[in-house]
Amino acid sequence: MKIRRPALYGASAMLVLTAGCSSEPSLREQYPVQWKTCDDLFGVKNMTDVRDMFGDDQEILNRPITVDEMANGLKREARERYDQVRGFDDYDVCHLDGRSVFWAAVGWSARSLKQVSDPSGRWHPVGPDAFVNGGIYGGGSTVAVFRCEVAGAAKGRQVQILLEVSLNDVGIPKSTDEFEAQLVAKLAQSVRDAVGCVNRPEIPEGLSPTKA
C-alpha cells in the first residue's frame, strides 16, 4: 500500500515570528509551549547547549504543540482506520531559526521495515529495534526509525509500525556528529516513552551501531 504523506504538520498555519532574542529566558517567555516541548523531547541540558551554539539571534517557527498532543495524535492514527487520501501527519515539534537551523519533526514513517532493514541500502541498524539514515552516517538531516506497537490498535489495523524522527541542524557551529547522534537518540527515546510503545523498542544512547 502506498502511503501518502501530507505537508509537514502545521505548515499551512501562520508561522509564529518575533524579533531575535538574546537569552534563553527570553525564548521561554515568548514561546513558553514550544520551548517546553523542545526541553521535554531533547532534555534541558541539550537544549541549553543548542541555544548556546546558535548565538543570540533566534526565533521559533513551529506552532505551539505539547508532547501530549503529539503523542495523542500518533496513537490516534495507529488506532483508527488508515485514510489513504489524508496519509499520515508529520508533527513539527521544535523549529529554531536564526543564523543556523534546528528543525525536528516526528511522524509515522512512509518506509517499510523491509526497506530500512535491507543491508544493501543506506539505513544503518542501531541496536535491535532502530535504524538511522543520513547525518552521522553522511548526508544532510539525520532520520531514525524504530518499531512501535500502540496499545489499543486492533490486530492488523496498525498500518505502519515504524515511528520516524528527524533532525536537521544546518550550520550550527561547534556541533559534532556525536552531539547530533545524542540529540536524535534522546528525541527517539522521548517519543517512544510519550507514545508508550508496548514493545518497548531499544534505542541506544548515541545511536551506537549494531556490531556484526
List the helices and strands and how they pair.
Layout: H1 24-30, H2 32-42, H3 44-54, E1 58-60, H4 67-79, E2 90-98, E3 101-108, H5 113-116, E4 124-126, E5 130-133, E6 142-147, E7 162-168, H6 177-195
Antiparallel strand pairs: 1-2, 2-3, 3-7, 4-5, 5-6, 6-7
Helix pairs in contact: 1-2, 2-3
Give a concise summary.
With 212 residues, this protein is α+β, with helices and mostly antiparallel strands. Helix content is 31%, strand content 19%. It has helices at 24-30, 32-42, 44-54, 67-79, 113-116, 177-195, and strands spanning 58-60, 90-98, 101-108, 124-126, 130-133, 142-147, 162-168.
Verbal overview:
This is Lipoprotein. There is one protein chain. The protein contains 6 helices and 7 strands, in the order αααβαββαββββα. The chain has 212 residues and is of the alpha+beta class. Strands 1-2-3-7-6-5-4 form a 7-stranded antiparallel β-sheet. A hairpin with a 3-residue loop joins strand 4 (124-126) and strand 5. Helix 1 crosses helix 2 (32-42) and helix 2 (32-42) crosses helix 3. It is globular, with a radius of gyration of 17 Å. The relative contact order is 0.17.
